[in-house]
Write a structure and sequence with these properties.
mainly alpha; 5 strands
């Protein structure tokens, strides 16, 4: 019996010990994961890394159309894919042109990047670069960085024909520059620019090109559209072909001098001459005045949002703070047409910054909503979708400025007539197609957005307050229904004037003092 008892006891003790061992092991694993999560939270960089579009956006049906390159891959994420074979040829042409004009050899530039490769690698999510060793990643960054800078230089100087790059490839290429998954570190571009004798021209090219995608000219829209879609120099910025040719000859001569003599002083002298030749482009912002962007898409976002009311320190944690009056924020209007009916009219803003939206009260029942001008074309959808995707990156603390703008614009656009009214106010320039297409575009982009309710809160509040005012809405409705035409108003004013004259005449007829002679005759 004792043996039997001991055997049975042994059988039960062994599984128990095994169970305790498994439980202890799982606890250790969980503890290790929690410690790792804590360390990751402490060590997370304040600068967002270049990464793939967040997973729930990748599940959309049109993901490939809006988030992946059409012509050229510029970084490690899409490198080597066969459908970018033609784009790879264009990249190499641009890279070759950049190196020739830089005054440096390919080996010099390669060495500079290789020396910084560990720092550059940290600009990407780990999974993005894990398949590339240092040599392979250095080559990718060298070709991609040189190609970007030369593309921007050629775009602002109208020099693509010299490289035999077709116009359609140029147009699609400009969309590829602003894709989240196609970005390269801005510090890489800075490194390459500082290595070139054309450093100032290259920096100006970036700022000018970004301006093209931010600013909307008052007039000459057709001319503006042509250089927007087929990048070329603006008339006031362009140099003559003779000057361009002379500039190129000087640069090539300098390159030959450096290769043969390797004299840094001569290279510096050539750099200064190059700086003196080219005047700063219009709207150029000094790089020294602002912190360096993370990449080109970040530069575009900052410039689009820049303005006196921009909230640079806004973070995700501030989004749900200081909401004191929900009713004031709640939006009961549906579109621009309803705002007009309530006496709120549209006015083109003085600049193109997305943060510059404001509401002003006019006399009595009238209000004005000031909106920055915007151009809608084939690049609008992918550009804004990638800006929104960038703001949604988990490691990017930001105020969701672009997301909030699109959400606000979507609240104004419900159908084609809303787009038409924005066009008439010269706020929206439609180069996409019909007004129905534009309305559909913003309705689709505006789906499932979570804006920062602090941005435009005052504007929404003032609009809602005006919209809820019954007497102002009633007067505005009367004027909208009966006096929308100036002739109707003139006719109404004429009737009022005639009525006033009739009343005055009648009053004088009844109350005018009579002549004494007539009064005495009657008596």
């Amino acid at each position: 019996m004792e043996n039997s008892h001991s055997r049975s006891s042994g059988i039960t003790e062994e599984p128990q010990a095994h169970s305790i061992s498994i439980e202890t092991s799982q606890n250790d694993i969980l503890e290790a994961r929690l410690r790792e999560a804590e360390e990751n939270a402490k060590n997370q960089s304040q600068t967002p890394k270049i990464q793939k579009v967040i997973f729930y956006l990748r599940e959309q049906d049109d993901f490939h159309k809006n988030y992946e390159p059409k012509v050229v891959s510029l970084g490690p994420i899409h490198h080597g894919k066969p459908n970018y074979h033609l784009g790879e040829k264009y990249k190499l042409r641009l890279t070759n042109a950049f190196i020739k004009g830089s005054g440096k050899s390919m080996q010099d530039l390669y060495k500079k990047i290789k020396e910084k490769i560990n720092e550059l690698r940290t600009c990407f999510e780990e999974e993005v670069t894990e398949d590339y060793d240092d040599e392979a990643l250095t080559s990718i960054l060298l070709v991609g960085g040189c190609a970007i800078l030369q593309y921007l230089y050629c775009a602002t100087k109208n020099r693509f024909k010299e490289l035999n790059i077709k116009t359609d490839s140029v147009a699609f290429g400009q969309q590829d520059l602003f894709l989240l998954e196609n970005q390269l570190p801005y510090c890489l571009l800075t490194l390459l620019m500082s290595s070139s004798v054309k450093e100032k021209e290259l920096r100006n090219s970036i700022e000018t090109y970004i301006d093209w995608h931010v600013n909307v000219p008052e007039d000459q829209q057709s001319n503006w559209l042509s250089w927007r879609h087929c990048p070329r120099s603006k008339p006031q910025q362009a140099k003559s072909e003779k000057e361009d040719s002379h500039d190129e000859e000087q640069t090539q001569a300098q390159s030959e001098k450096e290769k043969s003599h390797n004299e840094p002083q001569q290279a510096q002298s050539a750099k200064e001459e190059s700086h003196d030749e080219e005047k700063p482009q219009a709207h150029t912002i000094s790089v020294a005045q602002a912190p360096e962007p993370v990449h080109l898409l970040d530069n575009l976002r900052t410039r689009m949002l820049h303005g006196p009311k921009y909230i640079p320190d806004g973070t995700v944690s501030k989004i749900n703070q200081n909401i004191q009056n929900v009713q004031e924020y709640w939006q009961s209007y549906r579109n621009v047409q309803e705002l007009k009916t309530a006496g709120i009219h549209l006015k083109r803003g003085k600049n193109c910054y997305l943060s510059e939206i404001k509401f002003t009260k006019q006399f009595l029942f009238r209000g004005q909503l000031h909106l920055p001008p915007i151009v809608v074309d084939d690049s609008t959808r992918p550009k804004f979708l990638n800006l929104i995707a960038y703001e949604r990156c988990l490691d990017f603390e930001n105020d969701f400025g672009v997301t909030s703008y699109i959400s606000f614009l979507d609240s104004l656009i419900d159908e084609a007539n809303d787009v038409k009214m924005l066009r008439k106010a010269q706020i929206l320039h439609n180069f996409l197609g019909s007004d129905e297409e534009v309305a559909k575009l913003f309705n689709e982009i505006g789906n499932d957005l979570v804006p920062n309710i602090e941005i435009y809160r005052d504007v929404r509040s003032q609009i809602q307050k005006h919209y809820r005012s019954k007497w102002m809405t009633w007067i505005a409705q009367v004027f909208h229904d009966h006096f929308s035409s100036p002739w109707t108003f003139i006719a109404f004013f004429g009737v009022l004037l005639a009525l006033a004259l009739t009343i005055t005449q009648t009053w004088y007829a009844v109350n005018s003092p009579q002549d004494p002679a007539i009064t005495s005759a009657k008596t």
